[in-house]
Amino acid sequence: MEDFDPIPFAIPLFILMIIAEIAWAHSTGRLRAYEARDTAVSLALGLGSIIAGAVAAGAVAVILIRTHDWAPVQIGWVWWAWPLCYVADDFAYYWQHRLGHRVRWFWASHVNHHSSQHYNLSTALRQTWTGFIALSFIFRIPLALAGFEPGMILTCVAFNLIYQFWIHTEAIGKMPRWFEAVMNTPSHHRVHHATNPQYLDRNYAGTFVIWDRLFGTFEAEARDEPIRYGLVNQLGSFNLLRAAFHEWVAIGRDVWSAPWRHKLSYLWRTPGWSHDGSRETSDMIRARSKTEQ
Amino acid sequence: MLGTPIILALAGVGVCLLIILALRYGFTGVPRLEGNAEAVAIANGLAGGFDVQSCIMDRNGHCALLIDTQGRRAVVMPHGAHFVARLLGNEALVTRQGKTLSIQGEGWRAQLATESDNELDKVCAISWD
Description:
heterodimer; A: globular; B: 3-stranded antiparallel β-sheet; 3 helices
């Protein structure tokens, strides 16, 4: 299998762009744009995710290769397969991301990306350590089954991740209209990271925002609505291990204490669901907010 | 192709550089609430909603204590450059020393200092059970 991982080559670019953003925040007096401890946690989670990814890479590659062997058509390494694979992977990413917010098991892995109250380029690197445990790779299996080369799929996954780096910033307002219409942008992704009720569980796109427009999950950024970032129940901690595992611990606690017939529901239902109705899901928060207005 | 240890070493150096830069540029310290409105907006985001009835601000803007229309209490306190809101349950430990109120919850602690005794007298008149 031919394999190319572009992420090591992107790391120097990531660092230079973060330096530029820190300098911008400093020179424009945005003292809340960065926080040293928050940045440290984000970057440590990023480093940890490289290790976790390296550990799981072999297993993911084997699963994709085995699946690819069953594909009725072998597309191979032809040039036109690359853009096709990228778009197909982005479609798979949209569903992975959507379920990452709507199914608590997947959310437990993804939540740490949202646990910062800051929205800056270092937040982009706040990546999961538990993606393999959460079975995130299953969303790429249909691509291998469709005949795309596993190496090509993994390369597209990496490029998609790199694309999403630059959209984690408040330094860029809106891009040209045609770009905002098709591509995921800082404006669209700020909405995704917001805890404002009308923004909850919106804009799941990776590279192309067309999936959100197609499947009814798009919400435009309103100019007059200040965004509050992070989680509905803010983590309020700079403890690295807490940031990485807090939702898994919370799931364990809920499953342990729930009545038998509700135990599994705490794994697969929407985050915020509770058997006694004592908590709120994002849909409930949005509905409450509408009635309060 | 670079190996994972080399990537980690290079990335580690970059991470240290960025943290030093963030510290040098002064992205640390305790934030200040810009006013009651900010504290109220943060408390409104609490799970289940929080319809604020009264708000007592720390004299330096570092903290706020809020009471909602159902009689629930919440504290808005600094976390890094931002603030978090926490509902005060029965387990919250509240102690007063002069014009300063110390509030301790599960895994957190907040201090609220007021200009006058009167404000704290009002707070302390509330039943904390």
